[in-house]
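Deliverable D5.2: sample structural annotation.
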Amino acid sequence: MYSGTCSEQGTTQHHQGIHTVERTYSCNVCNKTFKRLPYLKAHQRLHTGERPYCCDVCSKTFRDTGSLKVHQLVHTVERNYLCNLCNKTFKRLRYLKLHQRVHTGVRPYCCDVCNKTFRDTRSLRVHQLLHTEEHTYLCNVCNKTFKRLAYLKLHQRVHTGERPYCCDVCNKTFRDTRSLKVHQRIHTGERPYRCDVCNRTFSDTRNLYVHQRVHTGERPYHCDVCNTTFKQVQHLKVHQRVHTG
């Protein structure tokens, strides 16, 4: 019978320890457990939205130091590929080609379920999870389903009216920490998101994405009655009143 070397046995014992160490630290939102308190604290930032680690070059924030270190490579790696429309540079040719679709509006990747289109395969794969992932958490008011308990609890505030997060400047309240953080930029004047075509800045990524359609010509919202397309969902809703009266 093969007994293995001392080093192999030591590696095996170390690995088995992963399964035997008691996981005493529990997340009070999703009940996931951790064997060390720092791991729990890092995990809880998924629920709170806290991003305490900041890039000293571009001020982008991150939940953990590992993600910050990976991001900082963006500023240190040589970038030899230049976009001839906005002068943004890239370290690889394929990144430049992908970026140029912002200017051309090309979205070659299509979801085979709902026909929504995307500029890159990663965005398509993330989107397709909406159609494939199991949604086991059910809202007992509107029957909408969610894949995580935390998402369900956040959604239920739509029905309860609960707004537990308060701005310490004007006392306006919000359902989630992200909305609070975006709102607080009204008071600070912070506009960390920049359009790489015209350099206009925004306080929220959503507003940036909407703005970029000015440059790309993208009109992703589609009337299912007359096929008219719109850049913003609000414009589609106003238009649909033509058909509904």
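Annotation notes: The first helix runs from residue 6 to 20. The mean pLDDT is 80.
The annotation will be released with the project's public dataset once the embargo ends.
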